[in-house]
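Ops channel
N.P.: pipeline sanity check, posting one input/output pair.
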């Protein structure tokens, strides 16, 4: 690694509300293969060594600099840009750290090729992060102690880096990262459209800082004939064929190389597992703080899975709804600096004397602490779908001939704007009822096509009608197989093959309900909604970026939902022991 022994003289200054920030622009950071990455470093006026917080992504270091000039935006502000995620530069400098923001290879002002999605091909992003961190630690403006900063993509990069065990990386603080990449891009086997926005800059994101050195791993791996065959197969999927952007991606892959790789790999397997961060995390032994807010279940699920495999000092902090943090990202900095004060500056501030897990409980607005997830003992209990749209702890006693199915017909969104939704609700709760953990939805359904989506959302509905999303579940009908990890209230699907549904048959579909923590207060109801597409706008979706929804079903489908004595459609939910005994 290169090791500068003197401070650079080309330093710009910035006045941030009376605070002078020195900026070292366009530093060149050598990688072991000779490629140089570009970086900017921000620190206080005094020339002294400081701990460094490193942020790495393909979104462009110049975009991150807007943290100095743009007030934080919350959804649904149209100025919210999902890629400004490297943290509050002025705050980092005020806390006496060096904030180092770098462009990954193949992006921004950096050299080199970036192949594939999210560490899937080419040079390992973790390897580059190792070299970057060790270079930073060797600079005279760094005291040799390095942490990392940033959410989402930046957060996942922290996991890649820590798994490589760079000696100077002493701790990480991860907020809102994405881990198992299949689960990031296909929720229950249903394609999520947000990765397109993250790459291409559509619908509230600037996207990657594009260069001509970003390449498709599929095009690098397979012959033109093999690619042609895979493209033709994907275009046979009615959902794909009905979505213009995907047709365009499949015909013009070099314009959408990263998104093309996702679209042509609709099943889990080696493609996604090769550098799965959850697998890599087993190598991590430095302290890790994981923070995630409720409302985006798959990321919450991933943080819990990651927490469970980590072997070193660790914390899991599950925060409150709503799901989207500000851009530029400024939340959670108090917790982050307390973590780094202990691990990078050696200040015994008591952070390691606290419980490993803290969970904000919606409804009661209490914080529950423990050493594990879930933080309380739970009992999974059923709420049954009943006629007249009721949810009840008692199952239906009548057979199908008397308790006929509910149903809905969903036309493709090519011919309608209306999303059909079925709902079932409990009676108002008479006393506070707490649920914390994962859950399941067992839906007995008959469809007249060979596939559909099942999208299920749980709401806390107040007496006046105001409501808040509690959790969600997704399942593509052809991905209904379960694997050996499945337990009551905690189902898992392998997603390694698609098995078409025989139209006209009644099948049991088990949806995983992502982890959540909520207390239903007296007078409130629990309402569950079922559809095969998402409403374009509602109380929850208006808080998300415009592209944060799932690929609609591209064929007309009639759904019959059975909930009778022979077909006990139900929710299986994690009631805490306190609630059960109360």
């Amino acid at each position: 690694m290169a090791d500068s022994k003197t401070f650079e003289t080309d330093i710009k200054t910035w006045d941030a509300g009376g605070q002078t920030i020195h900026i070292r622009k366009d530093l060149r950071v050598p990688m072991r293969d000779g490629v140089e990455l570009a970086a900017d470093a921000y620190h206080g006026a005094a020339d002294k060594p400081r701990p460094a917080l490193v942020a790495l992504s393909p979104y462009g270091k110049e975009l991150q600099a807007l943290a100095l000039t743009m007030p934080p935006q919350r959804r649904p502000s149209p100025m919210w840009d999902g890629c400004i995620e490297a943290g509050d530069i002025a705050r980092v400098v005020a806390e006496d750290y060096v904030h180092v923001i770098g462009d990954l290879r193949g992006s921004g002002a950096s050299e080199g090729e970036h192949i594939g999605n999210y560490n899937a091909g080419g040079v390992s992003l973790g390897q580059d992060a190792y070299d970057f961190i060790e270079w930073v630690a060797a600079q005279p403006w760094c005291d040799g102690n390095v942490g990392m900063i940033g959410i989402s993509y930046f957060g996942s990069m922290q996991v890649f880096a820590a798994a490589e065990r760079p000696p100077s990386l002493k701790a990480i603080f991860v907020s809102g990262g994405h881990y198992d990449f299949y689960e990031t891009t296909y929720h229950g086997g249903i394609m999520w459209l947000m990765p397109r926005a993250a790459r291409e800059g559509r619908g509230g994101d600037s996207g990657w800082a594009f260069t001509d050195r970003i390449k498709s791993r599929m095009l690098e791996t397979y012959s033109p004939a093999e690619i042609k065959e895979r493209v033709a197969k994907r275009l046979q999927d009615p959902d794909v064929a009905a979505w213009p952007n995907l047709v365009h991606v499949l015909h013009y892959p070099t314009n959408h190389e990263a998104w093309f790789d996702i679209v042509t790999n609709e099943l889990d397997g080696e493609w996604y597992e090769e550098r799965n961060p959850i697998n890599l995390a087993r190598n991590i032994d430095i302290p890790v703080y994981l923070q995630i807010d409720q409302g985006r279940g798959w990321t919450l699920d991933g943080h819990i899975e990651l927490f469970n495999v980590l072997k070193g000092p660790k914390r899991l902090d599950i925060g409150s709804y709503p799901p989207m943090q500000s851009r530029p990202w400024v939340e959670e900095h108090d917790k982050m600096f307390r973590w780094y004060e202990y691990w990078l500056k050696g200040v015994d501030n008591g952070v390691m004397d606290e419980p490993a897990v803290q969970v904000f409980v919606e409804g009661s607005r209490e914080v529950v602490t423990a050493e594990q997830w879930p933080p309380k003992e739970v009992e999974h209990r059923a709420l049954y779908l009943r006629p007249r749209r009721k949810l009840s702890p008692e199952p239906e006693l009548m057979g199908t001939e008397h308790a006929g199915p509910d149903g809905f017909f969903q036309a493709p969104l090519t011919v309608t704007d209306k999303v059909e939704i079925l709902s079932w609700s409990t009676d108002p709760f008479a006393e506070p009822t707490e649920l914390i953990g994962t859950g399941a939805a067992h839906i007995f359904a008959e469809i007249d096509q060979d596939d559909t989506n099942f999208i299920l959302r749980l709401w806390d509905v107040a007496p006046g009608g105001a409501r808040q999303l509690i959790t969600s579940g997704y399942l593509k009908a052809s991905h209904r197989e379960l694997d050996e990890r499945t337990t009551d209230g905690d189902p898992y699907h392998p997603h390694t093959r698609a098995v078409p549904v025989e139209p006209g048959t009644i099948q049991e579909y088990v949806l995983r309900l992502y982890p959540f923590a909520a207390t239903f207060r007296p007078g409130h109801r629990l309402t569950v909604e079922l559809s095969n597409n998402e409403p374009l706008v509602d109380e929850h979706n208006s808080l998300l970026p415009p592209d944060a929804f799932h690929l609609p079903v591209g064929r007309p489908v009639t759904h019959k939902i059975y909930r009778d004595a022979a077909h006990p459609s139900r929710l299986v939910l994690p009631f805490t022991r306190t609630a059960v005994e109360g």
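N.P.: looks fine end to end. Residues 1-9 have pLDDT under 50 and may be disordered.
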